[in-house]
Amino acid sequence: MDEVIEKLKKVEGITSKTAEKILIDIIESKEKLNIIKDVLKTIDENFDNCPICNFYTINKKCSFCDNETRNKDQICVVTSKKEANKILKSDFRGMVHVLNGEINLNKNISPELIQLPKLFARISKDMEIILATNLTFNGEVTANYIINVIKENCKKISRLARGIPFGGSLDYIDEETLINAIENRRIIKK
Amino acid sequence: MDEVIEKLKKVEGITSKTAEKILIDIIESKEKLNIIKDVLKTIDENFDNCPICNFYTINKKCSFCDNETRNKDQICVVTSKKEANKILKSDFRGMVHVLNGEINLNKNISPELIQLPKLFARISKDMEIILATNLTFNGEVTANYIINVIKENCKKISRLARGIPFGGSLDYIDEETLINAIENRRIIKK
Description:
Chains A, B: GO terms for molecular function: DNA binding; zinc ion binding. Chains A, B: One of its GO terms (biological process) is DNA repair. Chains A, B: Pfam families: RecR_C, Toprim_4. Chains A, B: May play a role in DNA repair. It seems to be involved in an RecBC-independent recombinational process of DNA repair. It may act with RecF and RecO. 2 copies of one chain form a homodimer. By secondary structure, the first copy, chain A, is α/β, with parallel strands linked by helices. Chain A has 2 domains: 2-49, no CATH class; 70-189, 3-Layer(aba) Sandwich (Dna Topoisomerase Vi A Subunit, Chain: A, domain 2), CATH 3.40.1360. Chain A has 7 helices and 8 strands, in the order H-H-H-E-E-E-E-H-E-H-E-H-E-H-E. Chain A has a 5-stranded mixed sheet with strand order 5-4-6-7-8. Chain A has a 3-stranded antiparallel sheet with strand order 1-2-3. In chain A, helix 1 crosses helix 2 and helix 2 crosses helix 3 (30-46). Chain A is globular and about 60 Å long. The termini of chain A are far apart. At the A-B interface, helix 1, helix 2, helix 3, strand 1 and helix 4 of A face helix 1, helix 2, helix 3, strand 1 and helix 4 of B.
């Protein structure tokens, strides 16, 4: 049992306690086991990473990149798919770029590891880049690094408004606050 | 995405936030997806419910019922497999019986629904029954119901010592405290 729990813990979001609950529930009920099997099949067959923005695609379609009604000249840079998912549900009508993490010198996470080259390749002169990295130390490092690289290559750079508490992780912010922060974004280069 | 999250939430222990984290992790990494697939396969092929005590079996063997060195005349009655798992790791050398819940009149959970008939069928004159239900209202109702039914049919009935805080759920008790409470159990019938 402990062996199986250790395996499950390798998946993001699953703690020992969660793993134990899940295992007991699926031992007791084949129905629950089939639910997870179904979900894995759906993910395996229909979901993938978007080659452009690194959000997920369903049946090869990305809700951002393959939506013609979105403003291609506005890219909101976020650190994870979770935040991109929140932005998808908000009123924001531009594009996103999912970094998959933040620059972290202590953990040897360099710009190449977090999809930054892909971001830089997307940027053009007419664009506004909205930096929506976390307002934490590593989030700031990441934002400043991006600003330095792109400042000559785009029209406008902005950061989320300080509606978000200092030191706060975007993960726990409600959608309302998030869209407010996008609307009140602070212009860094105009 | 929300549809898949709703599905996963049907499994015990998975909240919306956990489901989202799991899904994003398995979209990003096939390796994680395969870990869960592996776990499901292992559970499906090797794990089952023990027909005697309702703990789990691995390859049809129950760590309690199929272990000849355990004392068959001592049955510790618990409400879930999780607690049985803790007891398995402790120094207790008797058997267990997993109830799968507690009697709850508000929720129409009657004795038949929680594996009590199976418990009663196991009891014999030479046995000690150790009641390790939670020290909550429904745990007490369940314990009292069992005491009333079995008091003439076994040698000894005991409850866990009050080392466990009143109103406390067994789920969050460490193994040390649990084994102490078993050792200091209060005798109800001698």
